[in-house]
Design brief:
The chain is an alpha+beta fold and about 190 residues long. It has helices at about 5-25, 45-50, 65-80, 155-185, and strands spanning about 50-55, 90-105, 115-130, 135-145. The N and C termini lie far apart (about 60 Å).
């Protein structure tokens, strides 16, 4: 092989080698958010989120919001600490919720709704227990739509409504978990 052919092969391999080198150089920069790596304070994100006490959410007994409040608290406790209460909580999470049902499409012949949206709004405050200082105050929401079956299927309508509420609760729990993780990593 002549020198000119060697140069041609090297020119073709240079971009591939550059991309490979950049990939190796930046591979150590990316780590999973919920992994066991430590953050600047010394604990991992999982440890910090596991030390958050989720206060029972206040809702009137017997209302649909009471079921949503219990479901949201349970989902958050599972997401933050695997369902167990924290042994030595460092932060307290207080949540207030409100829910609504919005009718989107109404059948013109019968006047009955065909499609609805279940809405759940949550306002939450994260307080540092040692200093009683509010370190995070935010809100989030979850929306889930449902198609209402015919008027003779009232139990199917109730089940569809409950499933939509559960989807909205899971969306809100995921949003709160992600916001708390962001706070514990970046401090904002």
């Amino acid at each position: 092989m002549r020198w000119g052919e060697h140069l041609r092969v090297l020119r073709r391999l240079a971009p591939v080698a550059t991309i490979f080198a950049l990939g190796l150089a930046t591979a150590a920069c990316f780590q999973p958010l919920y992994g066991n790596h430590t953050v600047p304070g010394g604990d991992s994100v999982r440890d910090r989120m596991g030390a958050v006490e989720v206060v029972p959410i206040v809702a009137r007994n017997g209302t649909p919001e009471a079921r949503l409040a219990v479901g949201l608290r349970n989902a958050l406790m599972y997401d933050l600490n695997g369902g167990a209460a924290p042994v030595a909580p460092t932060h307290r999470l207080q949540i207030t919720i409100s829910s609504a049902i919005t009718t989107v499409i109404v059948d013109v012949s019968s006047g009955r709704p065909d499609t609805q949206i279940e809405a759940l709004n949550a306002y939450f405050t994260l307080t540092e227990i040692a200093t009683q200082k509010v370190v995070l105050n935010a809100s989030t929401f979850g929306r889930a739509s449902l198609d209402i079956p015919g008027s003779a299927q009232r139990f199917a309508r109730q089940r569809a409504s409950r499933d939509a509420e559960d989807r909205a609760v899971n969306t809100v729990a995921e949003n709160i978990r992600n916001r708390l993780a962001s706070f514990f990593v970046a401090g904002t």
